[in-house]
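Hi R.,

Quick one: here's the Cytochrome b561 domain-containing protein sequence you asked about.
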Amino acid sequence: MSSYPLKVWKTFRREQSEAPNSEEYQPLANDPSAPEPERTGADQQMPKPETRKGDLLAEWAAYVSTTIFLTTTWLMALNSSPSTPFTYHPIFQSLGVSSFAYGILTLQPTSRPRSKAEGLARHQLAMGFGLLCIILGTSAIVANKNINYSDHFVSAHAKLGLSSFVWILFQVIVGVGSVWFDGKLFGGGTKAKSIWKYHRLSGYILFPLLILTSSFGGWSQWAMNHSLFSTRIIAYTLSPFILLISVLFRIRPSKMRFFTTFDSFS
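And here's the predicted structure, written out as tokens:
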């Protein structure tokens, strides 16, 4: 009798005895019901995104509309009568409003400590520059009225402009007083910080007034004498509207909780 089958059987038994224990070597299970592994500290500290869906599009829409409004106004002013004080009124006022728009946009999405600080610094610079421009532009129109012995604050544009100017001064005082020197003007610390949400709300109410004033200026007699109807539609109706909608879209209502004693600035 051949011994070949016996050798095959012995070889098979030897391989079986050397194979790994099936209970010790199980494939990794992919059980959907199994609990997720605990997150590490690095995963827990991942910062949340500051922007929401649509924020970036709204920001670019605001910048494009502001550029159209600003460029059109400057071209009209420089091509009209640059030797008179009036020329500096639309130049500086449009630059001031554009600077205010940037000051709002640059602070809206901030939520992290570092971006808050950086956004606040840009906000203050933009608002300070905008205030300077508004003062220069207002001084220019007042000087032009005095030179020509014209009545002040007759048109709707002029009345809105005066209201906006006074409101801007109030807004700046509140903003500066609640931040500079640790907010000592309003009691410092938490008391000063509690003013921020009111400053923010006031700014969001003031900004539409500035947009409306600018739009009225774009449809003034001077503007109609130095621009086409289609130009005014684009630069002083559509662009201001898009800018306003873009800014309002990016508002964070959670930043203005009026039923809490403390609210973060951004």
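The two ends are 94 Å apart (CA to CA).

Cheers,
M.
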